[in-house]
Amino acid sequence: MKILQAMAGAEYGGAEEFFVRLAIALNGLDIQQRVVIRENEMRARRLRAGGVEPVELRFGGMLDVVTPWKMKRQLREFEPDIVLTWMNRATKMCPMGDNLIHVGRLGGYYNLKYYEHCDHLIANTQDIAIYLVKNGWEEDKVHYLPNFVGAKKAEPLARQDFYTPDRSPLIVAMGRLHENKAFDVLLEAISRVPNVYLWLAGEGPERANLEDMAQKLGIKPRVRFLGWREDAEALFATADVFVCPSRHEPLGNVVIEAWAQGVPVLAADSLGPGTLIEQGNTGVLVPINDAPALAKSLKSMVEDDDLCRELARNGQAAYKMNYTEQTVVDKYLAFFEKLMSG
Question: What is the mean pLDDT of residues 54-62?
Answer without folding.
Answer: 93
